[in-house]
Amino acid sequence: MKELIARSLKYQNGMVQVLDQYLLPHQETWHHCENVEQMKSLILALKVRGAPLIGLAASLLVAYLAEQGSSKAQLNDAIDELTATRPTAVNLMHCMARLREALQQPEYAQAVVTEAERLFEEDCALCDRMATFGAELVESGDNILTHCNTGALATAGVGTALGVIHHAARQHSNIHIWVDETRPLLQGGRLTAYELAQWQIPYTLICDNMAASLMAAGKVDKIFVGADRIAVNGDFANKVGTYNLAVLAHYHQIPFYVVAPVTTLDSSCASGQDIPIEQRAETEVTGVSGSFGSCQWAPEQAEVYNPAFDVTPAALITAWVLDTGVYYPQQVAAGVLGTV
Ligand code: MRU
């Protein structure tokens, strides 16, 4: 496999390497990954996270195993196991389907490697196109709110929603970002704040429950978020808390944009009701843990509900920013997302 280098994933010196996103921003630790069990646990622990990145990391591992001489049956099993790690992010299923297709070729090992390389390079190009289209929606002086982490850490390129912010900040020197901390795992507070600081884009970190009062005070001009899966009718799943923002934005008449590559569209989901939502461990809600240590604040026996994602209905979305262009509600209602 050729050398492939992204912000949090690389294939270098014959090894698949991932940046541990659970330890960021205080510690930059890279893990080598040589087998399915390792990759599964990295993904399940959200050390490897973000819809596009999960698919690409799993793909590089399958390609590495193909290069190491794994049989067709072993590669098929690896694809099955990796596909099952996170149920909502459809980019993973998309990548695994492309590799399964490559496995049908007579020279299957080389075909899998070539396909994994393509997926990686395509993702960089998809990010750039989304960022370019999305940046046109941003105006000088905008205060933009974003949720979770959708930047270079979550993709092979510049990111989805945060990629738009990156490109917009290069065009307008005076934009400012409100960063939702994004409970329970704090992808905003830990990762988005870290990326914006590195990009030298001015930001202010807020707790998730502060967004309403900021909107009421006229301090939010636009909202950009990413997606883990978009249904044909335009409903989409993203990090839990996204739906809250969409409802608030609608009430306050603030434009609400979702940014995603075509690999996030799922033509088998007619609406958001068809999107499976991942449920995660209770410990993520009863306390917090990370590079700083861990602490539990809830009573031992507390009942917990912990869906990792929620679904935002199409009716609350101003426009869908894809790598193929910006789509508005009339086009989406006419079924355009089923054809791009
Ligand atoms: O659970 P995570 O951290 O993988 O969730 C990530 C998100 O919800 C992102 O918004 C989404 O994957 C788009 S990332 C480009």
TrEMBL record:
EC code(s) of this entry: 5.3.1.23
Pathway: Amino-acid biosynthesis; L-methionine biosynthesis via salvage pathway; L-methionine from S-methyl-5-thio-alpha-D-ribose 1-phosphate: step 1/6
GO biological process: L-methionine salvage from methylthioadenosine
Catalytic activity: 5-(methylsulfanyl)-alpha-D-ribose 1-phosphate = 5-(methylsulfanyl)-D-ribulose 1-phosphate; 5-deoxy-alpha-D-ribose 1-phosphate = 5-deoxy-D-ribulose 1-phosphate
UniProtKB keywords: Amino-acid biosynthesis, Isomerase, Methionine biosynthesis
Site description Transition state stabilizer, residues in chain: C148
Pfam family, one: IF-2B
Binding site for substrate: R49, G50, A51, R86, Q187, N238, K239
SUPFAM superfamilies listed in its UniProt record: NagB/RpiA/CoA transferase-like
GO molecular function: S-methyl-5-thioribose-1-phosphate isomerase activity
Enzyme class: isomerase
Family named by the database record: Belongs to the EIF-2B alpha/beta/delta subunits family. MtnA subfamily.
Function: Catalyzes the interconversion of methylthioribose-1-phosphate (MTR-1-P) into methylthioribulose-1-phosphate (MTRu-1-P). Also catalyzes the interconversion of 5-deoxyribose 1-phosphate and 5-deoxyribulose 1-phosphate. Part of a bifunctional DHAP-shunt salvage pathway for SAM by-products.
Entry protein name: Methylthioribose-1-phosphate isomerase
Species assigned in the record: Pseudoalteromonas rubra
